Amino acid sequence: MSPTDPTPPRSGDDGRGASGGRVLTVSGLRKSFGGNQVLKSIDLAVDQGQVLTLIGPSGSGKTTVLRCLNGLEVPDAGTVAFRGGPTVDFGGQVKRRQLMALRDRSAMVFQHYNLFPHMTVLQNIIEGPVQVQKRPKAEVVHEAEELLARMGLAGKRNDYPAQLSGGQQQRVGIVRALALRPSLLLFDEPTSALDPELVGEVLTAIKELAEEGWTMVMVTHELAFAREVASEVVFMDGGVVVERGHPDVVLRNPRQERTRQFVHRLLNPF
Amino acid sequence: MDVDWGLFWSSLWPITRAGLLGTIPLALISFALGLLIALAVALMRISGNRVLAGAARAYVSVIRGTPLLVQLFVIFYGLPSVGLVIDPWPSAIIAFSLNVGGYAAEVIRASILSVPKGQWEAGHTIGMSRGKTLQRIILPQAARVSVPPLSNTFISLVKDTSLASLILVTELFRKAQEIAAFSQEFMLLYLEAALVYWVFCLVLSSGQSHLERRLGRHVAH
Ligand SMILES: Nc1ncnc2c1ncn2[C@@H]1O[C@H](COP(=O)(O)OP(=O)(O)O)[C@@H](O)[C@H]1O
Ligand SMILES: [Mg+2]
């Protein structure tokens, strides 16, 4: 963390700094939709400054995992614990207040950006910090401008999302998440809605955040990115974790046949 | 047919004045109250609560399934027989508000549902509750979608307020009727009333375009 950094961590506990220590512990996470069991007991652990990438075929439950972590979906069972927050046990009755507390710990970057179209770039970014976290507006605006500049978006603060390219919109989406000062950043295929020539700028931005020490969980099909940036790769299929480990192992020499097939198909599409 | 231009010009201001002091306030007040009712009814319908949703559906069904004139007469001429006497103006405002509430509720419900689900989720991910997301994220976007249909509702309402003449409210059409009865120039006075309504509606339509442009600012240029 550089001394000139504009976003000092909230009580020394935001997503950055490679000081180690467990940020997130998930165990026994289960979720069904109707009779369809989408997650069958998922365990995850993420340390401070780690980048965990989730890979796996479409429909394997990757998005659902992120949504459960962000309180957008209520799991049927399992526990989710963030450092400095409560351990939420979904086996019992979960109160709305607990879900909100969970949500405060992480911030989601969506596949389709989901920016607020009726707000300018700046308004999109400061909405959460000002309206929800009740932080002083001047301070939040200052911080937002620094973040925009770092993301190569200086001068875009008064534009509306519809005036931006997909790559710019997604970088605004990332800044919106950063401005919340979460302990954990969640990315759901952040580049898969982008035109190919715009993927690089967004991946570069995410890589820089990783190098700064932000802790993140990212669903992606960009294996080259995972190989270079991830601390751990988790391969999911059919609602279970099939294999996990260092990217060099999981992506180059997987132990499981299913992993091998999936990686091979992604690298050799035809 | 000989046109009595003298009568035309001398009655133009009294009729317009009755429009400005009767028709327009009646329409504005009823529309504002009607929108509040409509928002509440729309939220009841999408609340997921079966009792609230059922009550809201029944309300909309009754309002849309019965004539406005009958609603007006039930309130003004019907309620006194159960001991509830309401003056002409409040009666008209109650009837028109309830009527707008029934029609606008469907418009508002549809425009809330037209906002993509991802907008709710984006609201939640920045920490907002359902209520706050609705207020800050969903309704502003729904408002833009609902301006054209709600403007039509308002313009219909302006014309429908002429029914209030039947419960003794002094508005545009009742003034025209009075002058017509006095002068026996029915064709002239009723055409003149039509002309004034038409001008009112033209002005309102241009206001609608202005509002649409203002709310549409953020859409790609
Ligand atoms: N809200 C929902 N209702 C019903 N089924 C859902 C819902 N969300 C996801 N699913 C189902 O759960 C499974 C996993 O979905 P998802 O987590 O989106 O997978 P992935 O992100 O790995 O492609 C899919 O079969 C999907 O159809
Ligand atoms: Mg997905």
Helix content of chain B: over 70%
Q: Structural class, from secondary structure content of chain A?
A: alpha/beta
What string, H for helix and E for strand, traces the elements of chain B in order?
A: HHHHHHHH
Output the CATH homologous superfamily of chain B. Answer: MetI-like
Please give the number of β-strands of chain A: 10
Please state the average pLDDT score of chain A. 91
The general outline of chain B is: flat
Work out the helix count of chain A. Answer: 9
Largest chain interface and its two residue counts?
Answer: A-B, 29 and 22 residues
Number of strands of chain B: 0
CATH topology of chain B: MetI-like fold
Structural notes for this entry:
The complex is a heterodimer of chains A (270) and B (221). Chain A is built from nine helices and ten strands. By secondary structure, chain A is α/β, with parallel strands linked by helices. In chain A, β1 (22-33) and β2 form a beta hairpin. In chain A, α3 crosses α4 (137-150). The longest helix of chain A has 17 residues, at 196-212. With 221 residues, chain B is an all-alpha fold. Chain B has a single domain (5-220), classed as MetI-like fold, CATH 1.10.3720. Helix content of chain B is 80%, strand content 0%. Chain B has helices at 5-46, 50-65, 68-78, 88-113, 117-125, 130-160, 172-183, 186-215. In chain B, α5 crosses α6. The N and C termini of chain B lie far apart (54 Å). The mean pLDDT of chain B is 94. The A-B interface holds A 70-72, 100, 103-104, 107-108, 110, 112, 114-120, 127-128, 131-133, 160-163, 176-177, 180 and B 116, 118-119, 121-122, 124-129, 132, 136-137, 140-141, 144, 217-221. The complex binds adenosine-5'-diphosphate and magnesium ion. Magnesium ion binds at residues 62-63, 189 of chain A. Chain B: InterPro entries: AA_ABC_transptr_permease_3TM, ArtM/GltK/GlnP/TcyL/YhdX-like, MetI-like, MetI-like_sf. Chain B: Keywords: Amino-acid transport, Cell membrane, Membrane, Transmembrane, Transmembrane helix, Transport. Chain B: It holds the Pfam family BPD_transp_1.
